[in-house]
Structure formats: structure tokens, C-alpha cells
Write a structure and sequence with these properties.
elongated; binds adenosine-5'-triphosphate; Heat Shock Protein 90; 3 domains; Helix Hairpins; binds magnesium ion; alpha+beta; 7 strands; five-stranded mixed β-sheet; single chain; two-stranded antiparallel ribbon; 14% strand
């Protein structure tokens, strides 16, 4: 039932009660009928503000006027008593309405503030990304320029030229990689396909095992079932690579990374990455997924930000929990059907 109809029905019922038992001399009924009218008035104020409260109070007051007239001969105190009651209807209606309006305004202002905060956060992220981009593009550009000068210099011997041509190539690919990761952060278009998650993780482990062994890290994959889900396989691979690389990098003097892949039920798939590294400081947990947050000398701080975007684009969640000194657990939760 909608709120307006509810108030009207309640008002009619209380007025009827007034007419039927208004002159009853049972103390209990007298008390009930006096207070019943306040319920629709308070609700009117609460739901429709000052106008709602005052209008309900006025409606009920008008409806009881004939009742007062009918019983005008009830004694000296009857009419003043009823008038005081009507004045209170108005005061209560106005007061509840005013408080409710003030609360609504405050909520609206809070929403505006929150939106402004979100916009400024977004702008500052864009600003930071822009500064990072300038830095990441300018650095390889200056080495490219230096290397090109040497390659073009007639007096430089061919071996040195070859060496600098190689540098030229590697700097160009670095630039390309940076731009690629920027693009995958800003432009995200999913191309869902059938993807065997466990098989993909297995392949990635094979690829990264060399790097893991160098750090003395042992990677184990635990999976009870083999489910094919519809996701953007390429993008999910990127997420798994980022998480595995982060774990390997977090354990430079050895450790263990357990990857547990399970289906919660038929709707979600969960992949846990549990490492035995140093864990994450509580004050860093909130910054972890922000672009450019890194504690590494050569890190871009985009790995987790991109991974979170990818998982969220799949309507999933990337969660982290960590116990300092005992390791970190990253959980990728994705719905099975995209
Ligand atoms: N498994 C982990 N254990 C401890 N700290 C972690 C782990 N994974 C991520 N971190 C912390 O989160 C930070 C951000 O990670 P993210 O992958 O976004 O960037 P990065 O690894 O520093 O750089 P990039 O991934 O671009 O090379 C890391 O610098 C590190 O401090
Ligand atoms: Mg990383």
C-alpha cells in the first residue's frame, strides 16, 4: 500500500474511532482515542515533511469539528479541551515534518559531498596517471634520442652502433609495454569465451616457474574440479600473472604459494592465492588497488589496479586479507556465467 493511502486509511479509522468511542467514559478507551490521532499526523510529517504533517493535522482537526459541535453541551471544559488537542495536532505535525525535512536535507547534502569527493578522487587519479605517463614516456624517449644520435654518428664504430641499435629496440618495446598497460587500465572491453581456469593457471605456473625457482618459491595448484567458465580468458590470465608475480616478488628469499581453485556453488568460482611472504601492512591495505601504489623500486603500481578493474568488469571481486609476517591471501571471485 502506498504511504499516502496508508495515512488516509489510518486517519479515517482514527476519526471513526473518535466518533464511535469519543464520548466513552471508559478510561482506557478515552486514553486510546486521544492518542490514536497522533499516529497518522506523525507519519504524515515523517514521510511528507512539514506540509504532510500540517495537512494531516488540519484534515483530522476539520473532521472532528462536527463531533465537537454535536457534543457542545458536554460541559464547560469540553470545548477548550478539544481546542487544545487540535492545537497540539498542528504543533506535532509541524514539528515532525520540520525534523524530517531537516534530516532529508542533511542526507541530500551528504550525498552531494560524497559525489564531489568521488569526482575529486577520480581527478587526482587521472592527474597521477598523467604525471606517471609523462615520466614513463620521457625516460625511454631520452635514451632513444641518445641511442639514435650514436647510431647516426659516422665516427662511431659498427659494433657500438649495433649495441645502441639493440638499446633502441629495447627502449621502444618498454615504451610499448607502458602504453599497453595504460590502455588496458583505461579502455576495458571484454571478449568472453569458454575458459578452463585451472588449465590456464597450470600453463601460467609453467611459464613463471623459472622465476619462482630463482627466488626459491614453490607454487602448488589445488583444484577439486575442472570447470569451464565464460570469461575474457586473456584478461583473466593477466590477473593471474599479476597475482603470481606479486607473490613471487614478495618472497625473494623463498616461500610457498598455494593456489586453490574452487567453485562456491554453480554461480561463483573462487581462486585463492595464498603466499607465505611478509604480508601487507594494515595501513597499506586500502592503497593496494589504487593505480601507482607500489613499494618496489621498479614497480609501476598498476598490476593490482588493472587486475581489480578486470575482475570487476566480470562482475566479480578481488579481495585481500593478510597477517603481517605470515603472508597474504588474494581471492579472485568471478561469476560463472557472463
Ligand atoms: N602478495 C603480496 N605480498 C605482499 N605485498 C604485496 C603482494 N602483492 C602486492 N603487494 C604490494 O602491493 C603493491 C602493489 O602491487 P601492484 O601489483 O599493483 O604493483 P607492483 O607489483 O608494485 O608493480 P607492477 O605490478 O606494476 O610491476 C606492491 O608494490 C606490494 O607492496
Ligand atoms: Mg605487481
Amino acid at each position: 500500500m502506498n504511504k499516502l493511502l496508508f495515512i488516509i486509511v489510518l486517519s479515517v479509522l482514527t476519526i471513526l474511532f473518535h466518533y464511535m468511542y469519543g464520548m466513552s467514559h471508559t478510561a482506557m478507551l478515552e486514553a486510546v482515542h486521544r492518542r490514536l490521532c497522533y499516529i497518522p499526523i506523525v507519519l504524515g510529517g515523517l514521510w511528507f515533511g512539514v506540509y504532510g504533517g500540517v495537512a494531516t493535522a488540519a484534515g483530522i482537526s476539520l473532521a472532528v469539528v462536527p463531533f465537537i459541535y454535536m457534543h457542545r453541551s458536554m460541559g464547560q471544559e469540553f470545548i477548550p479541551g478539544e481546542i487544545v488537542e487540535i492545537i497540539f495536532y498542528g504543533i506535532i505535525g509541524w514539528l515532525t515534518g520540520m525534523l524530517s525535512d531537516a534530516q532529508k536535507n542533511e542526507r541530500k547534502q551528504n550525498d552531494v559531498l560524497k559525489e564531489q569527493l568521488r569526482t575529486s578522487e577520480r581527478l587526482s587519479t587521472i592527474g597521477e596517471l598523467f604525471a606517471y605517463m609523462m615520466h614513463e614516456i620521457r625516460n625511454p624517449l631520452s635514451s632513444i634520442k641518445g641511442a639514435a644520435d650514436i647510431v647516426a654518428d659516422q665516427s662511431v664504430n659498427p659494433e657500438r652502433k649495433l649495441e645502441f641499435a639493440g638499446l633502441l629496440k629495447s627502449e621502444i618495446s618498454r615504451l610499448n609495454r607502458t602504453l599497453d598497460s595504460m590502455l588496458s587500465y583505461t579502455r576495458m572491453k571484454l571478449e568472453p569465451e569458454e575458459c578452463n581456469i585451472n588449465a590456464e593457471i597450470g600453463k601460467i605456473i609453467g611459464l613463471l616457474n623459472g622465476q619462482a625457482e630463482k627466488n626459491g618459491v614453490k607454487i602448488n595448484l589445488f583444484s577439486k574440479d575442472d570447470v569451464v567458465v565464460r570469461v575474457d580468458c586473456d584478461k583473466m590470465r593477466q590477473v593471474f600473472i599479476n597475482l603470481i608475480l606479486n607473490a613471487i616478488e614478495a618472497m625473494p628469499s623463498g616461500g610457498k604459494l598455494d593456489i586453490v581453485s574452487t567453485g562456491t556453488d554453480n554461480t561463483y568460482r573462487e581462486i585463492l592465492f595464498k603466499d607465505t611472504g611478509p604480508g601487507i601492512k594494515p595501513e597499506q591495505i586500502n592503497s593496494l588497488f589504487k593505480p601507482l601504489f607500489t613499494t618496489k623500486k621498479t614497480g609501476s603500481g598498476l598490476g593490482l589496479a588493472i587486475s581489480k578493474r578486470i575482475v570487476e568488469e566480470h562482475k566479480g571481486k578481488l579481495l585481500v586479507r593478510s597477517e603481517l609476517g605470515r603472508g597474504a591471501v588474494f581471492t579472485v571471485r568471478i561469476p560463472c556465467n557472463q
